[in-house]
Design a protein that fits this description.
The complex is a heterodimer of chains A (313) and B (329).
Chain A lengths: L1 H54 L5 H5 L12 H32 L4 H15 L2 H15 L6 H25 L3 H9 L4 H30 L2 H5 L5 E2 L26 H9 L4 H35 L3
Chain B lengths: L1 H17 L8 E6 L4 H15 L2 E4 L3 H9 L6 E4 L5 H9 L4 E16 L7 E2 L1 H8 L23 E4 L5 H11 L10 E2 L3 H9 L4 E6 H6 L4 E3 L1 E3 L5 E2 L3 H5 L7 E9 L7 H20 L7 H12 L17 H7 L3
Parallel strand pairs in B: 1-2, 1-3, 5-10, 6-7, 6-8
Antiparallel strand pairs in B: 3-12, 4-8, 4-9, 4-12, 10-11
The chains are: A mainly alpha (313), B alpha/beta (329).
Chain lengths: 313, 329
């Protein structure tokens, strides 16, 4: 009896030591993780603050309502932010329907097999293709083959190619996270596959889908390389025709063919100028881009949170 | 996925094709050199303010600009070097002729670190010794350039091989286009070159005068020996009176003479360009021609004399009058 007691004690001590060791490893890992996250956050913060401090003198309404100019004091980003917004509208209306539909098809309808695997590998790879490659594809295909020229439409299509894999992957992930019993319950009361998808699967997956869409858009807004490749303009001091007008049919699409510039290109242009005052403009533009990106990512988190809260299984 | 994509694209194309307006026709499209860009931008800005006509200016570089120009996509192309034979052939193929229009001077400025007090005056031969292809891996120290220069590692900074500035520098100094040593820090962004030379006591670089003028507090400009044997500092005056040679060069715009030259808006724009080039080029850091020279250029454009003065390759130190006179298809 005494012997076995002793033995248990000894075992216990070994286990305790082991636990202690593992806990220590835990802490070390947590420490490293914390350190990495903090240094990333600080890096971003320092960069952002630097831009804001440099660009602060330009942060006023005039900056947003003025066209670019050779005089740094009067130069603004009107044509750039309008260009960015219009391009994003095109990107949204092309990439979202196609991306979500593709995601649903692949997850719900496609037969599993080598073909589905092939598509899956391709989509995953597309997400990792450098953006300049999309720019080159767009230059050959959209600008010359389809003759769309350097236009808002071309830029929107190019960026939607970039965004498509992100939307598809996140749609699939979101759909995959929905428990099977939700589908089975719907099927049990006689719903068709389409009804199940539309009324249940997509509803519950909406949070994840929206997150993917917004993160994709946030990526698109900061992209420079592909839009430069298709020949986005550097100096453009007028706005594309308005999408809405006062004569029937009240909307027009001529803005799609208009030349354009976007925020990152405006920034790129200013940073390479000799005058220091232009570098201040560039910093201010950079701060605007970061704020937009952060805002969009924040919106994604908020939307996902709200939608998750509503869903009770 | 590709075929869905294609269908969607084609559908969108069809939609826009139906809603096409005449919008594109009343925009003057300009592209080309990043060096000429600031002048063209300034002119475009003023022209738009005055006439309300729309102008867009892209920056594809001199070579990229000519590619678009010879496809007929742009009416005007900026160039920091004369058009090349290959480019002329491309334009010919597309049936596009052009008028060569010099617009202003740029002074390539050789810059050194603020603390460099030994190399404030240099000869083109010394620059060649420094930059020539033979120097690669061998000339690494200032003491190798001239007797009496200190023992200080030599660090070179210059524009990359795609730039017209690079072409001109090699033609003027090495006497052979694009021939240069490979071991120097190259960047298409002149501000990077400024940073490099400003932070390196043994640094030397070259770029357009505007970048030196903006960074006078950080850099020194080398006085380069001219044809007449004098050491001359680059400045508005020395470029205008022709004493700053061989590193001052003309900048051009090329006007599409097949179609655009007959477009009243484009015509008006070029006229406006030449009327205001003197004032505006000075404002953005370049050196204007004389009034008489601008008048001659205006007549040249009006006479629709096509072609280039540089058909037989690059030439250094041509005057405006010579450029206009020698223009041949």
């Amino acid at each position: 009896m005494a012997i076995s007691n002793k033995k248990t004690d000894k075992d216990l001590n070994v286990i305790r030591a082991l636990i202690k060791k593992h806990k220590k490893n835990d802490q070390i890992f947590a420490g490293i993780g914390f350190f990495i996250i903090i240094s990333l956050a600080i890096t971003l913060l320092v960069l952002f603050l630097d831009l804001v401090i440099d660009g602060y003198p330009k942060m006023n309404l005039d900056f947003f309502s003025n066209f670019p100019s050779r005089k740094p004091e009067g130069a603004g980003i009107l044509s750039a932010w309008v260009g960015s917004a219009l391009v994003l509208v095109v990107t949204f209306f092309v990439a979202v329907p196609m991306g979500v539909a593709a995601g649903i098809y692949l997850e719900e309808y496609a037969k599993k097999g080598w073909f589905a695997d092939l598509i899956e590998i391709n989509v995953a790879n597309l997400a990792g293709v450098p953006s300049i490659i999309y720019g080159l594809l767009a230059l050959g295909l959209f600008v010359y083959e389809f003759g769309l020229g350097t236009s808002v439409l071309t830029a929107g299509l190019t960026l939607s190619l970039l965004m498509l894999p992100i939307v598809i992957v996140s749609t699939r992930e979101a759909i995959r996270a929905i428990p099977v019993h939700i589908r089975e319950a719907a099927f049990a009361v006689g719903a068709t596959k389409w009804q199940v998808t539309l009324h249940h699967v997509l509803q519950y997956a909406m949070g994840g889908v929206l997150t993917g869409i917004i993160i994709g858009m946030a990526r698109a807004i900061g992209e420079t390389a592909p839009v430069i490749t298709i020949g986005a303009l550097t100096f453009i001091a007028f706005l594309p025709p308005s999408p809405v007008n006062d004569v029937a049919p009240f909307i027009n699409f001529s803005w799609l063919e208009a030349g354009f510039t976007v925020l990152p290109i405006q920034m790129f242009n200013w940073i390479s100028r000799p005058e220091h005052a232009f570098h201040i403009n560039a910093a201010a533009t950079g701060a605007v881009i970061i704020v937009l990106t952060l805002f969009m990512n924040g919106l994604a988190i908020k939307l996902r949170y709200n939608i998750r809260k509503k869903i009770k299984w | 996925m590709v075929s869905t994509l294609k269908k969607a694209v084609l559908a969108t194309v069809a939609t826009t094709a139906l809603t096409t307006s005449v919008f594109a026709a009343d925009i003057i499209k300009i592209d080309g050199s990043s060096t000429v860009y600031p002048i063209t931008e300034a002119v475009a800005e003023e022209f738009q303010k005055e006439t309300g006509k729309k102008v867009t200016v892209g920056v594809s570089g001199t070579g990229g600009g000519f590619k678009k120009f010879c496809r007929g996509e742009t009416s005007i192309s900026g160039a920091s070097r004369p058009v090349k034979a290959k480019e002329i052939a491309k334009c010919d193929e597309a049936g596009i002729s052009f008028i060569e229009v010099p617009v202003a001077f740029d002074a390539l400025t050789v810059v050194i670190n603020k603390d460099n007090d030994w190399a404030t005056e240099m000869t083109p031969e010394e620059l060649k010794k420094m930059w020539g292809p033979d120097a690669q891996g061998k000339i690494m120290n200032w003491s190798q350039i001239r007797e009496g220069f200190p023992n200080q590692p030599l660090k070179l900074y210059g524009p990359g091989a795609d730039s017209g500035t690079f072409d001109y520098f090699t033609e003027a100094i090495i006497k052979k286009s694009k021939s240069i040593r490979g071991d120097f820090t190259a960047s298409e962004d002149d501000n990077v070159l400024v940073q490099g030379v400003a932070g390196d006591k043994g640094g030397l670089g070259y770029f357009g005068l505007a970048y030196y003028v903006e960074n006078k507090d950080k850099l020194g400009a080398v006085k380069v020996k001219n044809k007449e044997g004098k050491f001359v500092e680059p400045s508005l005056e020395t470029v205008m009176d022709g004493t700053y040679n061989p590193l001052s060069r003309p900048l051009f715009i090329y006007l599409n003479a097949t179609k655009a030259a007959f477009d009243p808006n484009v015509k008006k724009f070029v006229e406006f360009y030449l009327n205001n080039a003197a004032k505006l080029s000075k404002e953005v850091g370049y050196v204007p021609f004389s009034t008489a020279e601008y008048d001659a250029i205006k007549n040249h454009v009006k006479s629709l004399k096509t072609g280039t003065a540089f058909k037989d390759g690059p030439a250094i130190g041509l005057s405006v009058a010579e450029i206009l006179e020698k223009a041949t298809d």
